[in-house]
Each structure stands twice: as structure tokens, then as C-alpha cells.
Specification:
The chain is 27% helix and 32% strand. By secondary structure, the protein is α+β, with helices and mostly antiparallel strands.
């Protein structure tokens, strides 16, 4: 069974220190094919990770092996907050 990752940041990005600004490019892409009627976007704190153990557990929940999660968690500066960004797009077929 596969997992959907269309709208999430890959867990390895947590340790990169890179902050990506929210974008409406998803709505622009959808708008090339459909008539977009509404877009709801978010860019908010999602979860607080108080220590490396919590960070490793978070990464395990996103599919990393125990060994890789612990290795990546050791590279993080904690405590940290994970921010969730995304778009929910309502669209209909062009007439």
C-alpha cells in the first residue's frame, strides 16, 4: 500500500533549515485547466517538537527507518515547531 505525499514536505527537509514561502502556484496550475472558484491556504505552526526523541518519533511517523530518524533528529536544533503549509482548491470544469 502506498502513501499519498502530494501535499506534504518530505520529512528530510526538516533538517535542511530551508524555509519555503507559501505559494499559490498550485492554484495557478489548476487554473490552467479548470475554473477555480475558491482557494483556502494555510501556513501555520502544526506541532511542537520539544526534544530529539520527539523529532525522531515525528520522522518515524513519516516513513523513515528508526536508524535514519534518529540520525536526522540528532542534526536538528530543538525545541522546534513544524509548520504546515497547503492549499485546498475548489474548481469546476470550464464551460
Amino acid at each position: 500500500m502506498g502513501s499519498a505525499r502530494c501535499c506534504t514536505v518530505h520529512p528530510l527537509a526538516l533538517s535542511s533549515g530551508t524555509r519555503h514561502p507559501p505559494t499559490s502556484s498550485g492554484a495557478q496550475i489548476v487554473g490552467q485547466v479548470f475554473h477555480v472558484t475558491q482557494v483556502v491556504s494555510w501556513d501555520q505552526p502544526f506541532v511542537s517538537l520539544p526534544d530529539r526523541e520527539a523529532a525522531a518519533l515525528y520522522l518515524r511517523g513519516r516513513g523513515l527507518s528508526e536508524r535514519e530518524a534518529e540520525r536526522r533528529a540528532a542534526e536538528l536544533t530543538v525545541p522546534m515547531t513544524v509548520t504546515k503549509r497547503g492549499l485546498l482548491i475548489w474548481a469546476r470544469a470550464r464551460t
